[in-house]
Amino acid sequence: QEGGAQTAGSPTSAAAEPPAGGGTFAVITHAASGDAFWDVVKNGAEAAGKQYGVTVSYQGDGDPARQSQLIDQAVSQKVDGIVVSMANPDALKESVGKAVAAKIPVITINSGGDKSKEFGAITHVGQSEDVAGRGAGEQLKAAGVKKLLCVIHEAGNVGLDQRCNGATEGLGGTVERLQVEGTNLADATSKITARLQSDTSLDGVLALNPAVAIAARDAIADSGSKAKLGTFDLSGDVVTAIKDGEILFAVDQQQYLQGWLPITFLTLYAKNLNTVGGGLPVNTGPGFVTKDNAEQVAKLAESGTR
Amino acid sequence: MTATGGAPARGEAGFAVPLLETRECGKTFGGVIALREVSMQVRAGEVTCVLGDNGAGKSTLIKILSGVHPPDSGVYLVDGAPAAFTSPRDALDRGIATVYQDLAMIPLMSVWRNFFLGSEPSLGWGPLRRFDVARAKRTVRQELRSMGIDIRDVDQPVGTLSGGERQSVAIARAVHFGARVLILDEPTSALGVKQAGVVLRYIAQARDRGLGVVFITHNPHHAYPIGDRFLLLNRGASMGEYGKADITRQELTSLMAGGAELEQLAHELSRDEPPGGPKEIR
Amino acid sequence: MTATGGAPARGEAGFAVPLLETRECGKTFGGVIALREVSMQVRAGEVTCVLGDNGAGKSTLIKILSGVHPPDSGVYLVDGAPAAFTSPRDALDRGIATVYQDLAMIPLMSVWRNFFLGSEPSLGWGPLRRFDVARAKRTVRQELRSMGIDIRDVDQPVGTLSGGERQSVAIARAVHFGARVLILDEPTSALGVKQAGVVLRYIAQARDRGLGVVFITHNPHHAYPIGDRFLLLNRGASMGEYGKADITRQELTSLMAGGAELEQLAHELSRDEPPGGPKEIR
Amino acid sequence: MTVADERLAGTGLARRLLIRPELGAVVGAIAVFAFFAGQSETFRSIEGVANWLDPASTLGIMAVAIALLMIGGEFDLSAGVLTGSTGLIMVILSTRYGLSVWTAMLVALVVALLVGFLNGLIVVRTKLPSFIVTLGTFLMLQGINLGVTKALTGTVQVSGLRRAEGYDQARALLAGTFSLGGTDFRVAILWWLGVTALATWVLMRTRPGNWIFAVGGDERAARAVGVPADRTKIALFMTTAVAAWLVGSILALRFTSVQANAGLGQEFVYIIAAVIGGCLLTGGYGSAVGASIGALIFGMADKGIVFLGWDADWFKFFLGAMLLLATLANRLVRRYAEEVRH
Amino acid sequence: MTVADERLAGTGLARRLLIRPELGAVVGAIAVFAFFAGQSETFRSIEGVANWLDPASTLGIMAVAIALLMIGGEFDLSAGVLTGSTGLIMVILSTRYGLSVWTAMLVALVVALLVGFLNGLIVVRTKLPSFIVTLGTFLMLQGINLGVTKALTGTVQVSGLRRAEGYDQARALLAGTFSLGGTDFRVAILWWLGVTALATWVLMRTRPGNWIFAVGGDERAARAVGVPADRTKIALFMTTAVAAWLVGSILALRFTSVQANAGLGQEFVYIIAAVIGGCLLTGGYGSAVGASIGALIFGMADKGIVFLGWDADWFKFFLGAMLLLATLANRLVRRYAEEVRH
Ligand SMILES: Nc1ncnc2c1ncn2[C@@H]1O[C@H](COP(=O)(O)OP(=O)(O)OP(=O)(O)O)[C@@H](O)[C@H]1O
Ligand SMILES: Nc1ncnc2c1ncn2[C@@H]1O[C@H](COP(=O)(O)OP(=O)(O)OP(=O)(O)O)[C@@H](O)[C@H]1O
Ligand SMILES: [Mg+2]
Ligand SMILES: [Mg+2]
């Protein structure tokens, strides 16, 4: 848990020469750095790198074209392994193929599990956003929610769209979407308030990141709505709000594992040619943080490992 | 000294249709009435001088003639037919070339690009048609030299020229492209005596080639010898159009200067001068 | 007709330290040598005229005097001590006010804002110090009226004024703020005869109040009666500085005009005139 | 010559109003309001108004500052991210280093002033376009926000301001609410009005205001008459930074937590609001009130679509159409105004 | 008077080179290259070069078009999103409606031309600033991209172009590779060079090129001498749209799938590249080659930081610092050039 904080503590540590016997692994995701969810993945990967004495470089970009360029770069740098999240598998096919052709082991994480094997990755870690979204939908359904507002804080982001789609499946009821600016919380609050004010039949809100969750909490209070609130991912404030009963649950995909495990697997593969689970996907979640277990994870969320 | 109305001042071009004619043209900008009911004619082979104080509406009249502004009221005839110019391009296409007082040049562009702007010489055909740069530069250099302006470098941006140099380029351009009518708004104001002389000679040449010339100046010494008709504007309104025969140099000068007041002034100024020199302040 | 060097032309201000003095000042822009080794003096109570063809470097010299450009070579002395102006503000603070030929006004700003730009009258103290708008507008209206310019509306943006109106505002401003030295770069070129007369009268008044005036013009009829010394520039170099006593009106005119050539020109132009009027083309 | 001029048409109050640069924006705002109020009851209810005034207020504060800067002929792309930086500084200092909220705010202010000063200094010294310089600052601040936050806290967001000393007073002052007709309005709305009034006064009635118009209209000419152009520009950049600090503090105090990417992308919205409000991108023309109304139009359109419950997928489409129509209404009115003036 | 002028100093080849607007950008590019090449072997290896030329090529194509538009005094904020729109149209038409890739590309081209034409038409007719007009188009296209894609496919991305008719030829032409020294380079690089050369020729050697400089430098003066300003501007907007179509097609063919938010945010990067390359934001000055080199600088800095393996959290910081330093180097060189000229 401490590991994540420490690794991140020295900005250029990832670029340092690998200790003897180590390799260099590139983690390339479909989210720009600074995203709360993916930051935990990064922490996990870097902590694992530190643990095994290997160099981990993390890069991410939401634009599939740029993500594929990052893979190309990693290939020309002749890294010893690539970890890639495939939100848009089609777009990455060529670049991943290039890596595989260059005999660089590839592990896919998070999304794109169904294409993982086809593209020649050695395994897949974590399940897609749909699954997590479905879990959230089911939880809300259990809480009696009939009409849900799914708050998308980045228009056109595939992962967020998949979460909402999953929630629609899980809930079985009506799911409406709302677009807000994730970087402007005042705007998010007032848009959620506006939606709740103008449609009082909304009885549930699903936020897709912790900051928006806090905005949604305020909005529910401002509008005097009785809507139940669920969210993805954790922050100190979210945990407090869960404890206070303002937020019902937070979906916890345990994405730390989506960073940690691939590095572990790649290290083992490099040393020992191990492939975990014979190439079958390894699931990391979803878990749920509710009032019951909020206390325990509170500290962990603060330090960026949950 | 009587207003001639439509009667031509000079014989040979006399009864032909005027090249340009405005009838009771007016122009308003927001709350400002810049021009009201001004009628004038421009005839081939004649120089029409427009005279008037600052802000009298001379430039506004010019801009109507050259298609920059449409008149708000009245009619504007070209070759006797109503003209509906929507842009200066239309006027240029009818052979009307203008030197504007305030819309001169594009400062960031080089002298030769400015000179040919809008009427670039071409080379080649179809998609390969291109700006004949070599010819453009050569022509500009020649035209300027023949005006007695020696620009060191036609690649220099116009913004770095001196005030008079810039003015000279604009005049050279208008003379070069003026096919039937040449309109000059205070072309000589920024020029040295020598250069002004050259410009006056150009005007005379254009007139002799049969062009209609409209010439604005504040200098009666420039206006009188070359003008054939004189349109007087005052505070936006026309004070009448005079043929050269109807007005003497003295009348013109005092009309432009506001009369006797000036003699008094010259007196005040020239403290070292014998009091004989007052009339020189014009 | 001899160059006077440093000798003063007029008695009373004669042996005092000149207000402004340049010694062998030069200025280069990129590849262009605009001014080389020009020496001149500006004395209190005297009008120094700078004469020369277009592009001779007059405006460049003016800009050195008023702090827009530092000279590239030579020294520039104010009150006998080397001045290192880094901006026109410094010059203004030493009482040197200038009307520039090309850096006149901010077109989008109203007349009254332009007039007081950089020297706004204030009202109130401390953080409540504010622009005294009422006084500013009143002053502008008065100043312009006393120049014979009647601007309808001092709230009008300067960009919508006529060329001469704009020039008048700039002159009125310089006269209003000129404490010790008044520098005017072709102030009368865009003005009507009447307005030009008013400006000359202003110059005379300023001179009589003991200001040093630098005056640039292409019109010998404006320059001679009011000038006390004449600095002649040609292609960036000084052709000498003359006191009024050292030069006659005829010499000055022909120096400015490039000599006999003009008589010939006047001949060509005035086809309707008796050949007696050639000297008028100046 | 001294009597009423025959060349001037009616100069009554109506005309005076019609030529103000804000006029078009006001009409645009009324049109947008009428459109949404006509269709959504909640939009025109007092709670609705309180709701859409809330984001308009923080946007408005920034838009006014950006408008001053734009009138002065410069851009600031770093202002949005700077709101995040100041918030981060405040929260990190008071939660991790135990400073009181007030001290933390002061430190954040100093940092903001420094950033503004550096922006200005680089612009006036190097004469590089401010677009490029502040783009550099924008990117660098973005990196610093993320890098420092991660280095100090291990996560990409910091929270817990509520427990800091002085939080309650600071919140009441900057992020609290006041009641009007039984509905709670955000205090930020008052700050917005105050900032707009102050900026208008500076612009219209002080010497620096005159200089701002001048450096934006024609910097060389302004320098030639002795306007301290460099100082004016640096001061404008610092003003923008102060506004960013104010907005950053308001948001941090309100949400008690700040994300490392807070404010990102907003720099654009500020410019949009200023331009809708009539500022010229090329400088030298505009008004603070106009920028405020631009912020209002943007805020109303942005929220109004949500009130109407239109499909979220098409949100941006409606927003774009709305802004275009509002500015068109704006432009038509101004044209009409110029015509009836004579 | 006709002999060599004594008021002119040396006019040799050196001076001719030094006064080109691209000079500074070239020096900036060399500095950035030297910096990264000195530290990363991969960066200077031929594979590395192929790597960073790849993003520079698509960026460069757009930057050149945007540079022309900026020289003509206008902005286009919708260009980035339009690359996404054309890609979406292409993929949707050929995967959902069975059109061949070529027909789909043709339809996309027509749509792009229409968007460009409308942008231009609105700008010249309403005289609204193009910043606002294309901002409207930007938002509306964004909404359409998302709304239509969701409506037709139920997700925010479409894929499967690989199976469409004519894919292989189209890909070879636009998104294929060519081999040089044993390394594969993207064909887009050739397109980029071609576009740059064509734009340079138009700008420097044709009548429309002269008009572009003129309408950007002073539109009123240009109109006064008869330049068809409206036509020139509309043509510029349409040129930008064609470039967006080209880039959109290249990317769609290469990745065979397009996301509904593709191209978003890139509009900004195009402007940055053009400005780094020496274009004035106020119009009337700049060069196509400069914009290309600006794109190269941006591409090198963007990828170079990744090659050095610096922490991704600080990526933006380094990028900002790099851009600022490159433009500063650029400016210093230009100043020096102006000094040695005499
Ligand atoms: N675009 C405009 N908007 C408002 N007022 C204008 C505009 N153009 C000109 N005017 C006004 O119309 C009047 C006539 O201007 P014009 O430029 O025609 O005068 P002019 O006779 O050319 O004067 P000058 O000899 O000084 O050049 C002026 O008072 C000017 O203020
Ligand atoms: N910023 C500049 N860059 C390059 N060349 C310049 C610059 N300013 C002036 N020059 C050149 O220097 C020479 C002198 O210009 P200046 O403006 O001093 O002439 P002037 O005597 O005022 O002429 P005029 O009577 O026409 O106003 C001109 O040839 C001009 O082209
Ligand atoms: Mg005029
Ligand atoms: Mg001059």
TrEMBL record, chains B, C:
The keyword Electron transport does not apply. SMART domains: AAA. GO terms for molecular function: ATP binding; ATP hydrolysis activity. SUPFAM superfamilies: P-loop containing nucleoside triphosphate hydrolases (SSF52540). Residues 20-260 form the ABC transporter domain. The keyword ATP-binding applies. Signal peptide: none annotated. This is Sugar ABC transporter ATP-binding protein. It comes from Planobispora siamensis.
From TrEMBL, chains D, E:
It is a multi-pass membrane protein. It comes from Planobispora siamensis. InterPro entries: ABC_transp_permease. It is found in: Cell membrane. Its main location: membrane. Keywords: Cell inner membrane, Cell membrane, Membrane, Sugar transport, Transmembrane, Transmembrane helix, Transport. The chain crosses the membrane at residues 17-37, 49-71, 77-94, 101-122, 187-204, 234-256, 268-294, 314-333. Part of the binding-protein-dependent transport system for D-xylose. Probably responsible for the translocation of the substrate across the membrane. GO terms for molecular function: transmembrane transporter activity. The keyword Repeat does not apply. GO terms for cellular component: plasma membrane. Signal peptide: none annotated. This is Xylose transport system permease protein XylH.
